[in-house]
Amino acid sequence: MAYRVLIIGCGAIAGGYDADRSATDWPLSHAGAIARDAKFELAGCVDPDDAARAAFARRWNVPIAASSMEAFEAEQGAFDLVVIASPTRFHADCLEAALGLRPRAVFCEKPLASDIAKAAELAARYGDEGVHLAVDYTRRWAPDLAEFARQIEAGWWGELIAATGTYTKGVVHNGSHLVDLLHMLIGPLDLHEVGPARLDHWEDDPTVSAMLAADNGAPVHLIAGDARAVTQFELVLSFEKGEIAMRDGGMRIETRAVTSSPTFAGYRQLGPPENVPGRYVEAMARAYADLAEALDTGAPVASTADNALAAQRLCEDIRRKAFEKLKKDPE
């Protein structure tokens, strides 16, 4: 019997990204992934926007569509999984309401709440209730990036020398994806300095450049792009034995091995790049396979409240220091 799913929020990540895509394409949205996985059944949806809710229910054949969670207050245990795909400012309230339904798991878009204290409080409550709380840092389910994490931990690439990541659309909203990915690949990071910031998408969440350091002291640079010109999400990791570059948000992977210079004796250089398609498109489908395994066996999922809180704490710190700088020097 399929696990019953309730989706809160009927926008792009809920199902819009797959509204016009083929059923043979890798899904990019929650509803797209659910529709392709026989272990799940999309049983209900919630959105206060009548048009968005109706269009979503029609496209994904959802039998029960409601304007608020009040319609499901008496449905304790009726849903195995609740998906929270609402805007960030509603996440905390949605997590509260979802817990009241007594599901076995909740899959929430990041961040868990607009402030870290509330996010930590909710994560603790979910832990106390024994409800799986997965957080959609999607690249943790990209198989090629997960494999790089294993290789790095095993020492295949040698010591980290430096890392540079470029992102747009807010240090908490989008930068946290980059920070979480860095945590997965190279471990904890210390914040050393906050640099220039720009309000390229959110008034309360600037995109901020920052200098961090990995555990071994290697510099890690976050570079603030500008979404008004171009959306960017790229990461370059330099190691003793080579370089790993995630391009186009994970749609392309580029690696280069360190080799002896054919021109200058005694020097070592990066060899020619090898490019392969990234497997980020597989991530959402694999997230739901992971959730099914968690529901089947109780196993932990790849992205939990623990790693989500770690990323949010660092990004909230960067945001706070960026606003302090802006107040001192508004120019």
Describe it for me?
The structure is a single chain. By secondary structure, the chain is an alpha/beta fold. It folds into two domains: 3-138 and 284-304, 3-Layer(aba) Sandwich (Rossmann fold); 140-280 and 314-326, 2-Layer Sandwich (Dihydrodipicolinate Reductase, domain 2), CATH 3.30.360.10. Helix content is 31%, strand content 27%. The chain has helices at residues 30-35, 50-60, 91-100, 116-129, 143-154, 175-186, 283-297, 305-328, and strands at 3-8, 40-46, 64-66, 81-84, 105-108, 132-135, 160-167, 189-198, 207-214, 219-224, 233-239, 242-247, 252-260, 268-270, 274-277. The strands form two sheets. Strands 7, 8, 9, 10, 11, 12, 13, 14 and 15 form a nine-stranded mixed beta sheet that branches. The protein has a six-stranded parallel beta sheet with strand order 3-2-1-4-5-6, sandwiched between helices. Helix 3 links the parallel strand 4 (81-84) and strand 5 (105-108). Helix 3 (91-100) runs parallel beside helix 4 and helix 4 runs antiparallel to helix 8.
